[in-house]
Design brief:
2 strands, flat
Length: 307
């Protein structure tokens, strides 16, 4: 079996899902309860001087940070589901190619698990909404005594978030989470297009870096990958600061500060070429490591460098 088969890939992915379904389900339920409890604790003790909109905005910002951290943790645990000897033996015996097995693990850790993280956030936020709605229905939820938060409540880009309605304690925080998570660079100008290209190239490289760390290391893959990421990022930042380099810059062109122009550094074009190349290299090394998997390996790493 040298050619890639969609049917074999689907069967392999189904095996990975069925094998890890129970642990994934329990993990999702637990994460949803953690989200619910964190939101309720913040609502109880952290909203004494905040309006409902400020509370929801903080939920969105904190949710974005936690979602990103949980996502990279799951990406770095790409082979954690087959670290057990029994599961690894069954996985290695599946009638599929190495590419199909490798891709099934990538899809599981990157798509399925991250969707479950988002589902946990939705469930936790829904539980908070239901609880506060019930309290409000029975007259126990305190009212915010400030100004009515209605049409003038907008997101960061000026779009109206809550038109013709007050923001209530039991409203959903997901719209604000979504606006905090996705950057708005625009696509009407070349500046916006290049910012999106740079963002996507950076996300691809980060994904490949944590995937490589996850396939190489059996333990502390997230920690080791994060250390490498931080060192590279800080080193690059110091290098750019020392030579006074930049990627994107906005410059005011009048004294009143009413007009400004966007500038793109030539480094952006270099990054948009180099980062995908480095990502491909990371995936290739990761796949080579995966092809060398054995039933019994070192307790710290998945690859035997001495063979």
């Amino acid at each position: 079996m040298n050619s890639f088969s969609i049917n074999r890939f689907g069967n392999t992915l189904r095996w990975v899902l069925s094998t890890n379904f129970r642990s994934l389900l329990m993990w999702t339920i637990g994460a949803a309860l953690v989200v619910f409890m964190c939101e309720m604790l913040y609502w109880k003790f952290g909203t004494l001087n905040e309006s409902p909109y400020e509370m929801l905005r903080n939920f969105g910002d904190m949710g974005m940070v936690l979602f990103v951290i949980a996502s990279v943790v799951l990406i770095s645990s790409v082979v954690a589901g087959i670290n057990d000897k029994r599961k690894r033996e069954s996985f290695m015996m599946l009638p599929s190619t190495n590419a199909e097995k490798y891709l099934s693990l990538i899809v599981y850790s990157t798509v399925v698990c991250i969707l479950c993280v988002f589902l946990a956030m939705v469930l936790g936020d829904t539980l908070r909404m239901a609880f506060l709605w019930g309290r409000d229905l029975m007259g126990f939820t305190p009212r915010y005594e400030g100004e009515p938060e209605s049409v003038y409540i907008t997101n960061r880009w000026g779009d109206v978030m809550y038109a013709n309605s007050w923001v209530r304690w039991y409203d959903s925080a997901l719209p604000l989470f979504w606006n905090s998570f996705l950057p708005n660079f625009g696509i009407s100008t070349w500046y916006g297009i290049m910012r999106w290209a740079f963002f996507l190239a950076s996300m691809l490289w980060i994904h490949s870096l944590y995937t490589l760390g996850g396939t190489l290391l059996r333990k502390y893959a997230f920690v080791a990958s994060s250390v490498v990421f931080i060192l590279l990022t800080v080193g690059l930042g110091k290098f750019m600061n020392y030579f006074d380099l930049y990627t994107f810059r906005s410059e005011w062109i009048d004294a009143a500060g009413k007009y400004y122009r966007h500038m793109i550094s030539p480094l952006v074009y270099v990054y948009c070429i180099v980062l995908p190349i480095l990502s491909i290299a990371n995936y290739w090394i990761s796949f080579r490591i995966f092809k060398g998997f054995e039933l019994i390996t070192n307790k710290w790493i998945n690859y035997d460098f001495h063979k």
